[in-house]
Amino acid sequence: MLRILVKLGKWTAIIVLVFLVSLLGIRAWDSQRGDPLAVWQTYVPHELTAAEINATDWAGYMAAEQRVFDEVKTQVSDRLDASERVMTNRYFEGAPMYPEHFRHDWNRSYELAPAGTPVGAVVLIHGLTDSPYSLRDIAELYREHGFLAIGLRVPGHGTVPAALTKADWPQWLAATRLAMREARRQVGPNAPIHMVGYSNGGALSLKYTLDACEHSDLTMPTRLVLLSPMIGVTVFARFAGLAGLPALLPRFAKAAWLDLLPEYNPFKYNSFPVNAARQSYLLTDAIRSQVLRMAGDQKLSHLPPILTFQSVVDDTVSPLAVMRTLYAHVPANGSEIVLFDVNRDRRFDSLLKASSLTAVNRMLAAGPQAYRTTVLANATENDDHTVARTTEAGQTATNATPLSIMYPANIFSLSHIALPFPTDDPLYGTDPDMSENYGIRLGTVAPRGERGALILSFSDVLRISSNPFYPYVHQRIEALLPSAAAASPAPTHQPGANGG
């Protein structure tokens, strides 16, 4: 019997090996299709390592950041082939979305300072493939209320997609710690410091805060605000590194990429490398392990209040992980989760998956919880009017508050990328502010035609890029801040002295 089991084990191993080799072969073959890699997908700027970030200060980080952007200018923009010098390429100086032509390049780290002495500080951390642009509206809100706002450009972002083929999450965390040190230095030892994290920035904000619970030398944030936080990712991200193995051979370098797309967005990469998915998994896995360990050791009692905004359907992160990895373990400290339900208008009944219609129920835990829960949803079935259904911490009864916001008739849900952007955002808004122009208005694009004719991805066009409920998000964050009258008058929409 033992001999038979050994034979079966050998044959199983052989079958698995053949299967994996076949998959890698298919992946290598598939990577050969399409155009060769462009210079922005091959040139990797020289970012500071985690150790170098730990050893420098904010001025040193900003100087290093300037060197990175200088490299992109000389090694990428100045070396484009004639075929790449087109009006839809953000790296072409003649393109309308070339970031260096803007009054302020929001790809860079920035400071927005109030007119008077800051009453506190906020550190804002953007998402994966994104840039500091994504949280600029929230940064302005904080500045209006007397806070110094520090928008961090996470290493590997805001420059060229190839930068994410080498960046790693310890680098990102080191930069997060540096931004928090700078915030504390500028506002003194007693002023409140908030952290606002979007997507991967939410993961970094939480990881930093967990570390602060265990290391007294780290500044503990007074409050966390998380939007679409990357607390858990898809199963594929766990094994994404395998998809890039053929890239170890130079001939199959394109296998290091999950998406290779034109770069027409001035403040976000469209191309997506395997390493970015791998690093997101490693970061979320570290958070999950740390939360479980600290919960078991009764070390989460020092967590500050957390206010999270999350769509119940999210194709980028796991909404369930937000509840089961994070909120299932938060102490009774005034934390809250705000969930955006799908649009339950009957016109979408036959189009929405059953899993989408039941997503909100799967996220809501039974019985009293240590945190407050608010669900933004249709007032009734087939009604565009909306309500905020709130269950207080420790309670089970739900109170419904009517909202003045209608669920737009042509929107079936929010998306991962929509939450931090108002509908008048000049780049992503459905009703953009025309006083600012970044070369393209992605929120208004609604094309109809044949596949393959546009440089745009149809899946990206279908995905809503701004938040019709943003006024509610704005209101809830503003409620955390001192009154604007108590703060010094804020200057107009300009970066601070240290802005990029």
CATH superfamily of the domain at 15-303: Alpha/Beta hydrolase fold, catalytic domain
What would you call the shape? Answer: globular
- In CATH, the topology of the domain at 15-303 is named Rossmann fold
**What is the helix tally?**
14
The SSE order reads HHHEEHEHEHEHHEEHEHEHHEEEHH
Indicate the mean pLDDT: 89
* Strand adjacency order, main sheet: 1-3-2-4-5-8-9-10-11-12
Portion of residues in beta strands equals: 5-15%
Task: Report low-confidence residues grouped into runs of 5 or more.
Answer: 18-31, 488-500
| CATH C-level name of the domain at 15-303 | Alpha Beta
Radius of gyration computed on alpha carbons: 23 Å
Termini distance? 70 Å
Instruction: Give the biggest sheet.
Output: 10 strands, mixed
Query: How helical, in percent, are the residues?
Result: 25-40%
CATH architectural name of the domain at 15-303: 3-Layer(aba) Sandwich
Q: In total, how many beta strands?
A: 12
Structural class category? alpha/beta
